[in-house]
Amino acid sequence: MHKLTNVPEMKPFSELSAEELAMENLFIRWVRFPDDPSVRSFWEGWINNYPSCKETVERARELVLLASDWKPDTLTNQEVNSLWGRIRTSLDIRTDKDSGEASVKWMSNARFEGLILLIMSLTVLVFLIFFFFKNY
C-alpha cells in the first residue's frame, strides 16, 4: 500500500457535500489521474472505510469530470449562473444543517437591525416629546 506524502492534515472528507468534495485538490487529483498509485490507494481505502459516502463520492466525481471537460463556449451565461446558484444553495443547505437550527437570514442583516434600532429610538423620542409638551 502506498502512503500519501505532503498531506498536511487529514480533512474530514466524510462531512463534505459532493460540491465541497469536488473542490478538494486531493480528490480532483484522484479523479483526473486515477493511475497515481498512492492517491488511488488512499481513496479506495477511504471509500472502504466510509461506505455511506459512496453516493457523495460518485456525485463529486461526476462534477470533477464535468468541470474537466468544460469548454468556455459550451455553457451560456444563464447556465453558468444557474450552476453557481445550485452550488451556493447546496452549500447554504449544508451550512443550515451544520448549525442545527433554522437560519433566519434577514434577522442577521445589519440593515434590518439598524432599522429596528432607528424605529425604537424614534418611538422613545416621540413619547418623550409628547410627555414633555403635555405638561405645558
Topology:
Blueprint: H1 18-21, H2 25-32, H3 37-49, H4 54-68, H5 77-99, H6 110-134
What labels would you give this structure?
single chain; 136 residues; mainly alpha; 65% helix
Task: Walk me through the structure.
This protein has 136 residues and is mostly helical. Helices cover 65% and strands 0% of the residues. The chain is built from 6 helices and no strands. Helix 2 packs across helix 4.
What is this entry, summarized?
It is built from six helices and no strands.
- What is the H-and-E element order? HHHHHH
- Number of helical runs? 6
* CA-CA gap between termini: 92 Å
Shape: elongated
Instruction: Assess the beta-strand content as a share of residues.
Output: under 5%
Low-confidence stretches: none
Percent in helix: 55-70%
Major beta sheet, specifics? Answer: none
DSSP strand tally: 0
Structural class: mainly alpha
**What is the residue-averaged pLDDT?**
77
Over all CA atoms, what is the radius of gyration?
26 Å
